[in-house]
């Protein structure tokens, strides 16, 4: 573990744990940082009733489109670290990034949110033409990215060329007993609060439903994946199980693990672990060697 990662874990351990079961979270999105506005042209459009941010590099752009779904336990808007991750991906790939500000729980459920998410996905895939398309996301957004790839496959239309999943939340039930063991070392998340947030998102569905917990869906015939996961994260056991299931189904997955990494540790761009993971994610986004 690097010194930077150790210090970050210590700082996080002395801050308040994120409480996704608390509906007092800010629903509005953090503004796009000035560093990104200097690098990119930023546009906001409405698609199927939700805002979609599109960030296009002013220089050094590539023929790559990323559809990025943010985390926040399905009940919080974008925070500044989400923009940090997006900034890193743009800097490494030259991709144009589309970020939907999707409907949030508890005011809305997955059944209410997915029609607009599907519409955004379809728009990005159609407009991309021959350009490479990548679905990416962190935490809850990683769950959405996986679910959208499954839905594209099931509709037999165009799908993403690659998936990039940062600490994805793929089973909202939080029933894996191994997660309770990891919680002793997790500096930011709590299993019970996550499970409560998952119930909000599920609405009338069982939280184990594949739409809500995409690890329970058919995992065959999905795009190649890059999965980044930290060991000090209660989601780690389910993510490791997901990787094994995808491989058993014949899929291609590159798993990058940091044993002492916190939840979505790629946001900690000052750590060598995050920089390595972001380089590997960029390789998948660009399709290097494929």
Automatic annotation (TrEMBL):
Stretches assigned to the Alpha/beta hydrolase fold-3 domain: 66-266
Pfam family, one: Abhydrolase_3
Key word Nucleotide-binding present: no
One GO molecular-function entry: hydrolase activity
SUPFAM superfamilies assigned to the protein according to its UniProt record, in alphabetical order: alpha/beta-Hydrolases (SSF53474)
PROSITE patterns documented for this protein: LIPASE_GDXG_SER (PS01174)
Parts forming coiled coils: none
Name under which the protein is recorded: Esterase
Residues annotated as the enzyme's active site: 139
Family the UniProt entry places it in: Belongs to the 'GDXG' lipolytic enzyme family.
């Amino acid at each position: 573990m690097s010194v930077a990662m150790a210090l970050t874990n210590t700082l996080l351990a002395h801050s308040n744990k994120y409480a996704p079961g608390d509906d007092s979270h800010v629903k509005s999105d953090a503004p796009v940082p000035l560093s990104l506005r200097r690098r990119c042209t930023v546009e906001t459009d409405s698609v199927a009733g939700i805002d979609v941010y599109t960030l296009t590099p002013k220089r050094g752009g590539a023929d790559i489109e990323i559809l990025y779904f943010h985390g926040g336990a399905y009940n919080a808007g974008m925070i500044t670290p989400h923009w940090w991750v997006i900034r890193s991906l743009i800097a490494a790939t030259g991709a144009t990034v589309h970020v939907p500000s999707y409907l949030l729980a508890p005011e809305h459920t997955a059944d209410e949110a997915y029609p607009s998410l599907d519409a955004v996905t379809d728009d990005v895939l159609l407009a991309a033409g021959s350009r490479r398309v990548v679905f990416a996301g962190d935490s809850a957004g990683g769950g959405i990215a996986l679910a959208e790839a499954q839905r594209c496959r099931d509709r037999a239309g165009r799908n993403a060329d690659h998936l990039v999943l940062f600490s994805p939340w793929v089973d909202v039930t939080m029933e894996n007993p191994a997660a309770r063991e990891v919680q002793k070392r997790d500096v930011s998340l709590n299993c019970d609060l996550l499970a409560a947030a998952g119930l909000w998102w599920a609405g009338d569905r069982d939280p184990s439903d594949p739409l809500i917990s995409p690890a329970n869906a058919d995992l065959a015939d999905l795009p190649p994946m890059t999965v980044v996961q930290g060991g000090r994260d209660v989601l780690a056991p389910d993510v490791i199980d997901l990787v094994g299931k995808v491989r058993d189904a014949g899929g291609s997955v590159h798993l990058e693990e940091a044993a002492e990494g916190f939840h979505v540790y790629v946001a900690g761009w000052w750590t060598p672990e995050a920089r390595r993971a972001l380089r590997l994610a960029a390789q998948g986004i660009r399709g290097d060697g494929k």
